[in-house]
Design goal:
Layout: E1 2-6, E2 14-15, E3 18-19, H1 21-37, E4 42-46, H2 57-73, E5 78-82, H3 89-93, H4 96-100, E6 104-107, E7 112-113, E8 116-117, H5 119-122, E9 123-127, E10 133-140, H6 157-175, E11 181-187, E12 222-226, E13 232-234, E14 237-242, E15 259-266, E16 269-277, E17 284-291, H7 292-301, E18 314-321, H8 328-336, E19 342-350, H9 370-382, H10 388-407
Parallel strand pairs: 1-4, 4-5, 5-6, 10-11, 11-12, 12-14, 17-18, 18-19
Antiparallel strand pairs: 1-15, 2-3, 7-8, 9-10, 13-14, 15-16
Amino acid sequence: MRLLHTSDWHLGQTLHGQERDYEHGCFLHWLLEQLEQQQVDALLIAGDVFDSVNPPLQAQERLYEFILSAHQRLPHLHILMIAGNHDSGARIELPAPLMKRLNTHAVGRFHWQDGQPDADRLLVPLPNAQGEVMAWCLALPFLRASEISGMGAGGDYLSAVQQLQQQLLAAAEARRAPGQALLAVSHAHLAGGSISEDSERSLVIGSAEALPASLFPDSLSYVALGHLHKPQRVAGQERLRYSGSPLPLSFAEVNYPHQVLLVSLEDAQLQQVEALPVPRAVAMQRLGPASLSAILQQIKALAIHEGPRETQPWLEVRVQLDEPNPSLRSSLEEALHGKGYRLIRISSEYRQAPESSPPEALPDLEQIAPQALFSRAWTERFGQAPTEAVLADFALLLERVEQRGESDT
């Protein structure tokens, strides 16, 4: 059996206010070709399909056009898609009955039946091209603490997740026949995973929600993970993998490998995991940090990019200044004229005399996570960092705000 593992598409994302639909369209076109060329049996999408709980219509159309095209090209292909922390679980599941006719399984939320996980919704059989069920996959969308507050010892998040997954594993073991593999697709932060400096919305509140790799026992042949944008193995295990995002979602992620993972199974045994690099439809380039004169020289050395505007590279410039320069942007734009680059971010850094201490840098509100912003404000107001209890209370408040946003969709 052959699987393709991908995650963190973030359809509808904007980069410093600039929409990226063209890039997402190029990626999805390339992905369709890979599904066909590699003769894949199942596609696993491990959450953060959209960038927000209220994605633009254009982003939703991209997803549904992709699913329809995939079914037309590969009628036997099964797609399993779960919600991530950026998604609205309700929105992901809304067209589920229609998508099921296209062999697409959409799991946006955890479902319960008589106080137990609803195995009929959360366990998905995955057949091969001949229609034989070759694997059972645990669908584990992003779990907020409020969704499982009644489970586990004393309402402890980790204990509740542990109990939930044990129940699902037991149900899967009861259903699978000899030779069938057990898989999982999950959107979560596993302890030890490497996070980018610009990771958009931290899942971890004082490390309380960083899950241990031991939650996924050896009986699971492969675990398709989403949430962290940097592709990586967890705990050095080949079977525990983050595929990473197919596009760099910030300039800090430009040098990451951007890929999908082709997973080969023989019965219940993992045979191979192969990275398929995603072509970069639009380049992203950083200049600096350097003085303005050096930056202007670097711009002069840039090759001219010819082509339609939607293919022009994104450009971030980091300039070191001695004092504010009101004409900075106009100087840069003049130097870039005719080069075919889209300047979307200018970062100014002020050099200080050796005897003076530099002022604390102001945060970029587009990059900083809500928890980090709250911690900063709390420390400034009370002179000390917030306690774990305060951070936990803030996390619950943030969840309620996000859930209210979902209910408005």
